[in-house]
Amino acid sequence: LSLARLIQKFPHLGNAIIFGNVIKAIDNQYSLLMRHFFFHFLCVSIFCFTSAQLSAQYSFNTSSETYETLPNPISVNEGEVWYEGDNYPIYFNFDFNIMGQTYTALNVRAGGGISFPGLGEKELFIFHSPFGGYFLTDNGTEGNSLSPIDYQIIGNPGDQILKIQWTNAGFLSFPSSNAEDFIDFQVWLFESDDHIEIHFGESQADPATYGYPDFTSDSNPGASVKFWFDDCSNVLGVTGASDLPSYNFYNTCDPSYFFIDGTPSSGVTYNFAPSSTSVGILEQNNLFDAIQLDYIPENRSIQLSDIPKTEDPIIFSLINSSGQVIQQQQLSTDHHWIPGFKLQIPAFAVARGLYLVHLSNAEARYCGKVFVR
C-alpha cells in the first residue's frame, strides 16, 4: 500500500505527519520486512491519535480579575500604524507547549489574535469575524499610531508569563458603526502549565461595531473567539453571553459560524488550559478496561492504577512522537494489582511533550497518551 493510497484511505494521516521521521528512517535503514512492521505501527498510532483527539485536549472557563495596563512594556508595532492583516513576531525566552509541540516564538495577529509557527496551524482567534478575517485596526492615521501593541515578560525561569497588550485598538468600520469604538485587552501565556488567558479591559462597542444591521441579522453579535490547537476538525469555540460564555468543540473544516454575544466587560478573563489529566485512552481490550492513566506533575511521574492481575508480566513502553521507545520496563506482578494501588513510574528525565504509553503481555494490550510537563 503506497503512502499516497494510505493518505487517501486515512484522511487524518496529515494530522499525524509528526511520524514522518519514522518513514524516513525506514527508507534509509530497514528491509522491506521491517518497513511492513513500521507501517503497521504507523497506522495503529495514527488511528490512536485521530480517534481520541476530538474534544479532550483543552478546557475553558471564565474568571474576573482587575484589568491592569502593563508598566514599561516593549513596543511591538514601534509606533507604526497597523492594519487587520498585519503580523509581528515576538521571541520569548521560555518553552510553551501546545499538543506536544514546543514554541519559543509567536506571531501577533494585529487584527486580534496570536498564532504559533511550526507543524500545522495553531492559532488563538480573539476579535475575529465568524465569516473570516480579523476585526481590529489602528485608530491612528498613516505615520501616527494611536493604538499601541506592546508586550512584557515577567517572572522567574520556570514561572514566566508573556503578556501581550492591545491599547485603544479600533474596529473596522461598517456603515452603521461608530468610528470611535475601541477595545483594550491582553493575552497571557504561562510557562508553568502552558495555559493561556485573555484579559479584557475598557471598551466602547455595540452591535453596529460587529456589523448589525449592515451585514448580519443577529441583533447582538460579537467576535468569533476560538482556539485552533489541533486542526480544523477539532476547534475550541466560545459562545453565548460574553461575560460568562460556554464552550464546545467544532469541526470547522466546513463553514461553521459561532460567536459570543457582545463585548466582554472590563475585568472578564477567558482561560484556556490543557485538560487537567493530560491523558487519553487510545486502545485497550476487556482485560485492561479498568486501567487508569495519569500524569503527576508534582514528582514528574506517570501513574497507573487499577492494573489487573495477570499470569504474564506486563511490559511498559513510553514512545515519543517519532515512534522511538525511550523508556521500557517490566512491571512487577507482585502487588500492582491490589485494589487502590497506584504505580508511579518516574519520568523526570523525559523531555516535555506528548507520548504514547503502551502496556502489553500475552493476554492483553493497552495504548494511551500522556502529556509530560
How would you sum up this structure in a few lines?
With 373 residues, the protein is mostly beta strands. Helix content is 10%, strand content 40%.
Overview of the molecule:
This protein is mainly beta and 373 residues long. The protein contains three helices and 24 strands. Strands 1, 2, 7, 8, 9, 10, 11 and 16 form an eight-stranded antiparallel sheet that branches. Strands 3, 4, 5, 6, 12, 13, 14 and 15 form an eight-stranded mixed sheet that branches. A hairpin with a 5-residue loop joins β10 (182-190) and β11. It is elongated and about 75 Å long. The two termini are 37 Å apart. The model is unreliable at 1-56 and 277-284 (pLDDT under 50).
Index terms:
single chain, 373 residues, mainly beta, eight-stranded antiparallel β-sheet, eight-stranded mixed β-sheet, 3 helices, 24 strands, 10% helix, elongated, disordered N terminus
**Number of beta-strand segments:** 24
Query: How many helices?
Result: 3
Helix content: 10-25%
Q: Indicate the overall shape.
A: elongated
**What summary fits the major beta sheet?**
8 strands, antiparallel
Helix/strand-derived category reads: mainly beta
Compressed to H and E, one letter per element, the order equals HHHEEEEEEEEEEEEEEEEEEEEEEEE
> Strand-residue fraction?
35-45%
